[in-house]
Amino acid sequence: MTISPDHSRVLMTCLAAILAISTLACGNSVNEDEPLSTQRPNIVLFLADDHGQWASGPYGNEEVDTPTLDRLAQSGILMSDATSPSPVCSPARTSLLTGRLPSQHGIHDFLSESPDFNKDWLADEVLLPELLRNAGYRTALIGKWHCAATSLEPDPSFDRWLSYDQGPEDWPNQYLHQGTVYLSDQGTPISVDGFQLEHLGRAAREFITSGDPEQPYFLLFSPTDSHSPFTGHPEDLVEHYRNQTLTAVPSGETSAFPAANDASVAPDDSGETLAQYYAAVSHQDTELATLLDLLEARGELENTLVIYTSDHGLMVGHHGLLGKSNATLPQNLYGESIRVPMILSWPAGFPEAGISLDIPFDHLDLFQTILDAAGVDLAEGLQRRINSPGTSLLPKLHDLDMEWRHYRFTEHGNARQINDGRYKLIRRYPPLDPRFGDELYDLEADPRESVNLIKTPDYLEIVAGLGAALDLHFEHYEDPDRTGRTVIDQPPCNGIEPWQKLADHLATAS
Q1: Which domains does the chain have, with CATH numbers?
Q2: pLDDT value for 477
Q3: What contacts 148, CB < 8 A, 6 or more positions away?
Q4: In terms of pTM, does the model score above 0.85?
Q5: Is the distance from CB of 63 to CB of 54 less than 8 angstroms?
Q6: Considering just the CA atoms, what is the radius of gyration of the chain in Å?
């Protein structure tokens, strides 16, 4: 059976419910006489916001304190080559929840919550929590949503919903780390005071403890602490980092691209910004510890798949910038914006623990891995409809010699990148800035991505090979109506997308 792209999300939900019947027939309850390795796990997905891989202890940063991430890595698998499918919030989060590229689901930049951009962005999509819910899981979103034009209205795939309401402070309120924050509690506007991370943490723990103990659950815990503004974090943590000499971020770097605005230019002394950012990362690490301790106290940690990752990374002075892909015009695809922490722990389900895997892995693979762990077997028609480029990690863990893909792919609107671990090719599509074209970097000789080799004759064969692989990948998966190649002709996400700003500039200059 094939399903046309214009069918509604309601139909997708019905199909997902049908395929879940066979799963439910196998039973959902936890059987004390059944080995944990054969029971479906609880799933806790801690999705940080703008947390770059470089700012994580298990990845070699000795300046930032993340003992809980160290603990998680020791009990699980650290993906050392984890990347985001898009270095911007909404497309990355939607890719994780759909298993699809932005050029498949059509969200290419952050979604504004202004009525001017109101659209049912997820109308044709089947979400990970839908599939899990239809397979017998309790589901919850606690924290940031950003996959629709509003966070006030709960998405039907979640049983429990605690996200954000614009409130009188408007959209940026969700990034207020301390103070009065306006939330949506099952669609009802409420306000809370204090550190919002800690309020969200209490809600997450209440969800874990309030349900039927024989029913598995999926918790998407998505705080915004590591997102700007870089202020308002616990003062003791900030002061701890202020008193250190911080050297993890290279100093004196500049970008080949102009900054998108003044806020995207890193200050000459990024010490205070970095202290606040590290404090946010450590604060989140403490909240993760509280969740793990609760699971352990309840006897659930052994058979809970716990995942820590981020939607994408961030530059905090890297390349002279403060921000991510949209910190420059045109948008950049620097590694600090793309690489993310990705740690998975499931003591009852993984054959090994405390290992690092150096293979390409992204949110699309995570989507497939979660479904695989939960025992959700998609019907053939639904598999074709989703058409996910991702691959479950579980077979690889049981056979480390299993062949795995060679390339990493990322896109942001009309820019795409492919890299094979050594060389990184960036392709750009209309509208094109006449000052900037495609890019090629030798990541071994030039890890800071400062020397563009695209016009160097000795590298023409490498450019051709990577370009062919990039085109083949996207031609196989992209939706012609949603591809980043024609993003300038698609419905706007916010009206200030890098490609729209560039098009406006070119029109004014002509």
Answers
A1: 11-31+39-398 (3.40.720.10), 408-509 (3.30.1120.10)
A2: 99
A3: 111, 120, 121, 122, 155
A4: yes
A5: no
A6: 22
